[in-house]
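Project outcomes to date are best conveyed with an example. Our students and postdoctoral researchers have been running inverse folding experiments weekly, and each run begins with a structure described purely in tokens. The record below, which covers 509 residues, was selected by the lab manager from last quarter's runs and is presented without edits.
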């Protein structure tokens, strides 16, 4: 072989090695948050104190009979007419008894995650009634087929740690059919931890029966619950919702973990001031915690204080912007200060297209929530149009965004090797650069996230390659996954038994 050919071959090998993805993920999910603290210690104490005052007086209204009985038995009292007063001692008893860490099980144990502490995980959420169609780039009603496809898509996206159903199958009008077919889509298409909402408590026993079949037999789900229920038991301002409370009782009966969500709206169902909003929203999420504690002390619950912002000029919900980024970061800080497993929401862009507004709003809200230490960051993949829409391309783009957020959280490691004195000395006294050195190769594998979608070509090469934008590249990737990834995580026996016992609706081909 000629010397020139040898040099070209060696260069090609080095270029291929540099282009290859790292052997290990340099910043996997579960990085440490808490670097961003928008509230001072005195701020935290003042907001918590105001929340305790609100729970004691005026207390909670519209308390269902069974819950009123259990609350009073736990230490609450009759307050103003038609309201239950929750004293500070009962709130602090509930905080103390609630698990500070617990597992969100995946049906594949390797995909389980531990909630709590300082660890940050991005996952999904939402109940979008419209899907951004990949073929037409227009919105249309979300379908059961979309739900199956979104579940399959996220199954291969490594920076999405759990899957909450992201859209509502508007083509399934019956409530029980909707709840059970949603549950079926989750367990058929992924082994990550999953979550969903139940419209009525009566849907939970058959859903758990389905989960037992998937897990191997009666009682197996309760022994290792892999599905969490999303519930909003408090209706702002400061009253309980009867149907949602019924769902809490049913979930606890079947040992299903609960994600209790407060979603007050600034200037509408909560004060427009940031501090007042945080005080009321914290009180309402604590009211959910106390309710769960009164029914069964120690039942695992994600403390999801989700401050929502509306545009006060129009009354429209605003999922992107500095205010909602700040409020959710503050909510995460408050929850973590109390030692509770925190859930917040981010990446809820108001953009309808995959455009500059989409990227800006998602980037600032998700990073603020992560830096504040939200343990579980919901709504963080694919959501568009102020939660009314969801996008396949968005799922792929947001997964890559999260990789970079995790890298920021990982931070800078400082030790003798990373300070690089010897490497600097060698470059200064040698060839004058760091290219191709062992020190550089180690850093390349260990310290850098390499995008699969973001474009880093110079303009001429980008134009030669078709001048494609992120939306079209993400569409190609989403279509590739959906064309090739067809998991069937249910055994033939479990599939047959589920279909024999429940009305499973197959999406149109």
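After processing, the design step wrote out the following sequence:
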């Amino acid at each position: 072989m000629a010397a020139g050919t040898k040099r070209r071959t060696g260069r090609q090998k080095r270029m291929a090695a540099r282009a290859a993805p790292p052997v290990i993920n340099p910043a996997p999910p579960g990085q440490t948050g808490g670097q961003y603290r928008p509230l001072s210690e005195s701020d935290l104490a003042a907001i918590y104190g105001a929340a305790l005052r609100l729970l004691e007086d005026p207390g909670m209204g519209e308390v269902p009979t069974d819950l009123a009985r259990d609350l009073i038995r736990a230490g609450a009292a009759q307050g103003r007419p038609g309201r239950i007063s929750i004293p500070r001692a009962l709130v602090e008893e509930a905080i103390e008894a609630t698990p500070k860490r617990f597992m969100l099980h995946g049906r594949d144990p390797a995909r389980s995650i531990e909630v709590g502490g300082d660890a940050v995980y991005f996952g999904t959420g939402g109940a979008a009634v419209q899907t951004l169609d990949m073929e037409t780039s227009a919105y249309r009603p979300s379908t059961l087929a979309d739900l199956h496809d979104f579940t399959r898509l996220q199954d291969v996206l490594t920076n999405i740690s759990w899957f909450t159903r992201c859209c509502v199958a508007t083509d399934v009008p019956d409530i029980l059919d909707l709840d059970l077919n949603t549950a079926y889509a989750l367990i058929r298409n992924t082994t990550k931890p999953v979550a969903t909402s139940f419209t009525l408590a009566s849907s939970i026993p058959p859903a758990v029966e389905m989960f037992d079949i998937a897990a191997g037999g009666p009682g197996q789900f309760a022994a290792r619950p892999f599905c969490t229920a999303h519930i909003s038991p408090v209706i702002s301002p400061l009253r309980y919702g009867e149907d949602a409370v019924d769902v809490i009782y049913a979930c606890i009966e079947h040992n299903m973990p609960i994600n209790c969500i407060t979603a007050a709206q600034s200037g509408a169902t909560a004060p427009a001031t940031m501090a007042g909003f945080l005080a009321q929203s914290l009180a309402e999420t604590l009211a959910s915690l106390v309710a769960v504690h009164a029914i069964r002390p120690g039942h695992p619950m994600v403390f999801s204080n989700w401050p929502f912002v509306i545009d006060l000029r129009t009354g429209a919900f605003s999922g992107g912007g500095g205010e909602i980024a700040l409020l959710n970061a503050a909510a995460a800080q408050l929850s973590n200060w109390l030692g509770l497993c925190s859930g917040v929401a981010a990446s809820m862009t108001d953009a309808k297209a995959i455009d500059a507004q989409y990227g800006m709003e998602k980037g600032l809200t998700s990073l603020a929530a992560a830096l504040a230490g939200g343990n579980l960051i919901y709504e963080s993949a694919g959501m568009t149009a102020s939660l009314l829409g969801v996008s396949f391309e968005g799922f792929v783009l947001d997964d890559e965004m999260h990789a970079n957020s995790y890298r920021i959280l990982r931070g800078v490691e400082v030790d003798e090797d990373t300070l690089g004195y010897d490497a600097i000395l060698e470059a200064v006294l040698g060839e004058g650069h760091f290219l191709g050195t062992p020190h550089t190769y180690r850093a390349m594998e260990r310290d850098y996230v390499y995008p699969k979608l973001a474009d880093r070509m110079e303009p001429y090469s980008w134009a030669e390659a078709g001048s494609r934008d992120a939306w079209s590249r993400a569409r190609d990737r989403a279509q590739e996954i959906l064309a090739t990834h067809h998991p069937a995580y249910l055994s033939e026996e479990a599939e047959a038994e589920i279909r024999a016992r429940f009305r499973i609706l197959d999406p149109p081909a």
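The CA atoms of residues 132 and 348 lie 15 Å apart. The domain at 95-410 is CATH 3.20.20.480 (TIM Barrel). The training component of this project remains on track.
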